[in-house]
């Protein structure tokens, strides 16, 4: 259950990953992500950054903003 105004569902981080996954299953040629790592713990943020890089290496065009990335994410 994703949740909503009246029902508690998944966490904000899980919701963000679900939203990204939903977009990725359509195999878009361009993916726009607005701060996909904000509000996530450092390990999860790094895994998201790695996923973004993997998709870019496979040929997907990705435009994203990342506010104050850690050195690992920046690499």
Any chance you could write out the topology, listing elements then pairs?
Layout: H1 12-24, E1 30-34, H2 42-57, E2 61-65, H3 71-74
Parallel strand pairs: 1-2
Structure characterization notes:
- The chain is an alpha+beta fold and 75 residues long.
- The protein has a single domain, classed as Rossmann fold (3-Layer(aba) Sandwich), CATH 3.40.50.300.
- Helix content is 44%, strand content 13%.
- The chain contains 3 helices and 2 strands, in the order αβαβα.
- A two-stranded parallel sheet has the order 1-2.
- The protein is globular.
Offer a quick outline of the entry:
Helix content is 44%, strand content 13%. It has 75 residues and is of the alpha+beta class.
Uncertain segments of ≥5 residues (pLDDT<50)?
none
CATH class: Alpha Beta
The CATH homologous superfamily name equals P-loop containing nucleotide triphosphate hydrolases
What overall form do the CA principal axes indicate?
Answer: globular
Share of helix among residues?
Answer: 40-55%
Total strand segments: 2
